[in-house]
Design goal:
about 450 residues, mainly alpha, two-stranded antiparallel ribbon, 17 helices, 5 strands, globular, membrane
């Protein structure tokens, strides 16, 4: 039988080494992040979740913060809902850039016919949010970790935006998939793979949840289930709806969004007078237009390919798997694809907060410092949109400062995650093998 969880070589420590000397790696911090569960912590989580979510709903009802209009996205969903009712994906719509599985989320408010579309969408988003919270709290049956708190307290840092996007539902699929594939049973691995496959058909990135599954039986079970679920969903939607792959035409034409790392580079160049371009509303977002934009977009795609190549190399070279490795690898992969993207919309932070929360449900994770970097990045994202979005578009000093800080934190988090993942699974394993005493 293939060993999905290889043991450390004789004479080596089971725990990951102290990589950076950071206080976040100390025994004191580790024990402080795990609070013994009785009724108290669960009641505290429930109370904070309820209070913060009520605040988010109130903000959405007013929807006047900053430039306002955050909830207009749900109105667009309602428009698409009408087209789905006619049996077609949005034909020729430049703003429809999502895989066909997204249609299921867009149509889901129809399951709550006693509410209006917007109210039903928000209610279902809150339900998905609650499912994530409960799943994280139950992930460690003996203790309540910072993972739950990262999600409960981190999501409101994005203000009311999570309630007006379908990314909470997508993140729920990825979180549940990761928790399932780290279980022991074949059924759990298959369930996790199926959830990741469905998530990939909803918004692509949940497929990365499986990048760190242990070699052998777990990988075969999870990846096979993911492929079967994705193909079955795609075939079903193609059977009942026309133009199910039309989103590919729109995605290929995307440029450099102002909130991406490439966009920040262009904004800095424009502020210094080194670049004469401007901004334009295209494909449902504000993008930069002008010289070198196309080249920068190609560079971003090249960096994405390089990031994918690095992940494949890591998977081939990795020798040491712990219970946290699949979780840590998923967060690292999504971070790398985020920072190399031509588009870094503020709702991307929902994905990263969810994956960071899953990592922190395991005591073996090496992503604690990465998770902590994501909290201020989320707060800065809400400043960038909607609070100071007009300043970001105009490229003022205030807008530039927010974007440089936010994207700097994301880049630092991605590089730190990649380093820590490689060191604990590749470098440490190689060193341990080299120093292990010979067998007698």
């Amino acid at each position: 039988m293939t060993n999905d969880h290889p043991q450390s070589p004789p004479g080596t420590r089971a725990e990951p080494p102290n990589l950076t000397g950071s206080p976040f790696d100390s025994d004191t911090f580790t024990s402080a992040t795990f609070v013994t569960v009785g009724r108290g912590p669960y009641l505290a989580v429930a109370s904070v979740w309820l209070l913060t979510r009520v605040g988010m709903v109130l903000l959405l009802m007013r929807d006047t913060l900053g430039i306002g209009g955050v909830g207009r996205e749900v109105e667009l969903y309602r428009h698409w809902y009408g087209q789905f009712a006619q049996g077609t994906f949005p034909p020729g719509d430049a703003t429809w850039q999502y895989p066909p599985g997204a249609g299921l989320v867009i149509m889901s408010p129809g399951l709550v016919p006693w509410l209006g579309y917007v109210q039903a969408f928000v209610a279902l988003t809150l339900l998905a949010d609650a499912v994530v919270t409960v799943a994280l709290a139950r992930a460690d049956s003996a203790r309540l970790t910072h993972g739950t708190w990262i999600w409960v307290c981190g999501l409101p840092l994005l203000l009311h935006l999570p309630l007006a996007r379908y990314d909470v539902q997508t993140t729920a699929l990825a979180v549940l998939a990761l928790l399932a594939v780290t279980a022991r049973s074949t059924a759990a691995h298959q369930l996790g793979g199926a959830l990741a496959g469905i998530g990939a058909m909803v918004k692509v990135w949940p497929a990365l949840a499986l990048i760190g599954t242990p070699r052998g039986r777990t990988t075969r079970e999870a990846w096979t289930a993911a492929a079967v679920a994705a193909l079955a969903l795609l075939a079903t939607l193609a059977l009942f709806f026309s133009d199910s792959l039309g989103f590919l035409r729109q995605q290929g034409s995307r440029g450099i969004q102002i909130e991406s790392l490439g966009g920040t580079a262009l904004a800095l160049a424009k502020a210094t007078g080194a670049w004469p371009g401007g901004v334009e509303f295209r494909y449902g977002a504000i993008e930069y237009v002008g010289p070198y934009v196309s080249s920068l977009g190609h560079l971003a795609l090249l960096l994405t390919v390089i990031a994918f190549g690095w992940l494949l190399l890591w998977r081939v070279r990795a020798r040491r798997w712990t219970a946290a490795t699949p979780l840590d690898a998923a967060l690292t992969a999504v971070l790398l694809f985020t920072v190399t993207s031509r588009v870094i919309s503020p709702q991307y932070m929902i994905w990263l907060l969810g994956l960071a929360a899953v990592c922190l449900t395991s005591r073996r994770t090496v992503m604690r410092p990465v998770a902590l970097l994501l909290l201020p990045a989320a707060a800065l994202s809400s400043l960038a949109y909607p609070v100071l979005y007009d300043q970001v578009v105009a490229g003022t000093a205030q807008g530039l400062t927010v974007m440089v800080l936010r994207n700097g934190l994301l880049l630092a988090a991605a590089l730190l995650a990649a380093r820590r993942l490689w060191t604990t699974t590749v470098t440490t394993a190689a060193t341990a093998t080299a120093t292990a005493p010979p067998e007698s």
